[in-house]
What does this fold into?
Amino acid sequence: MVDRLVNSEANARRIAMVENCFGSSGQPLAEQGRVLVGEGVLTKMCRKKPKARQFFLFNDILVYGNIVINKKKYNKQHVIPLEEVKLESLKDEGQYRNGWLIRTASKSFAVYAATATEKEEWMAHIEKCIEDLLRKSGKQPPSEHAAVWVPDNEAAICMHCKKTQFTVLNRRHHCRKCGSVVCGPCSSKRWVLRGQSDKPLRVCLQCYDDLTRERARVPPLAQPPVAHAAAVKSALDTTGSGGDSSADDDSDDEDERAPADHSHDEPKFYGDGEKTEETNNHSSKETK
It folds into this structure.
């Protein structure tokens, strides 16, 4: 399927349309050998609440963005290399149905399709692209992934101390190691989490203790350089125990210009059954 569409004019047009919909806010997507495999709207579990996001599946990357004008304009483009992705199906729970996790080393989150069939289609196409990429590159799938953040509305009190109630003054923070919602004092420590950032990130006290014990068990030659400790100390000195939660924000969670609810469109996947323009042109020439 993918090989047949690589050099098609229809594929080039589709990619150009995606680039045009993101405009200057997105990065160029047209590359040699890249194919747009499918597209559609999925509900992404953001920090504050679930929100509709437009997803584009290519044979090597997964792209998504906020919907400004459906099928015409998107912003806050996110590009995820598929070689880094691991999928994990989620069980249906209450209103959250037909979902799965998209896990990477730097960020992990849940998405939900409108129907069980759409979930099956999305997961099958993504898994196929990942399988093809890893087979061609000879690489192994990543073994470590970022934690999935617990949504704000699922934690009225700190998940670490079980005491602090969140208010306007007592703000929620997220542990970057386990994804728990914790208060400032319970997330006053920082740690460099490989794959997420070169800078020390907020972690809860439990994860900090676990990471400290784990590092103590690692042979000295395999431990991070002393600069790690200095960076952590510097971060703690500048942020204090309360910290600033701005770094905790989900980068695509805020969309004040969110559009009104739109009717659901089924996702579109481009496969062997589709007649490309080249095929149609060739057939019309033969009949003349």
